[in-house]
Amino acid sequence: QVQLVESGGGLVQPGGSLRLSCAASGSIFSINKMGWYRQAPGKQRELVATITNTKSTNYANSVKGRFTISRDSAKNTVYLQMNSLKPEDTAVYYCNYVHRDGNSDLSYWGQGTQVTVSS
User: Fold this and answer.
1) Residue 84, helix vs strand vs coil
2) Which residue, 65, 88, 107, 116, has most beta carbons within 10 Å?
3) How far apart are alpha carbons 95 and 58 in whole angstroms?
């Protein structure tokens, strides 16, 4: 089992910045991928950004150039630096951790943290 604890959400004005953190604990595999997804009211959960243990990254087109994902592997922690925030970034942001165990990908989710962008 893997536990994920997120922090850093809140209310910010358009154009502002926030930094989300997610700490993983438990049965962490050295080869893994961590990332952030978000879900706005009435919409499906969508990818924001992911980062592998080799620090290869992937971003949704809507956040490229504004958001930066990073990780501290020694701390099993992933970060999401969000700049130039827009009202449409408002959502619950979920941390995700995935590793392969045998022939299966095991996926774990955090409890979510609310990000609200509003004036």
Assistant:
1) coil
2) 116
3) 14
> In angstroms, how far is the first alpha carbon of the chain from the final one?
40
DSSP assignment of 12-73, as one string?
E-TT--EEEEEEEEES--SS-EEEEEEE-TTS--EEEEEEETT--EEE-TTTTTTEEEEEEG
The CA R_g of the chain, rounded to the nearest whole Å, is 14
pLDDT tens, N- to C-terminus, the chain (119 residues): 999 999 999 999 999 999 999 999 998 888 899 999 999 999 999 999 999 999 999 999 999 999 999 999 899 999 999 999 999 999 999 999 999 888 899 999 999 999 999 99
Which 8-state DSSP code applies to residue 87? G
- Which residues make Cβ contacts (< 8 Å) with residue 111, sequence separation at least 6? 4, 5, 6, 94
Closest CA to 71 of 30, 115, 27: 30
Contact in structure between 86 and 63 (CB atoms under 8 Å)? no
Residue type for position 96: N
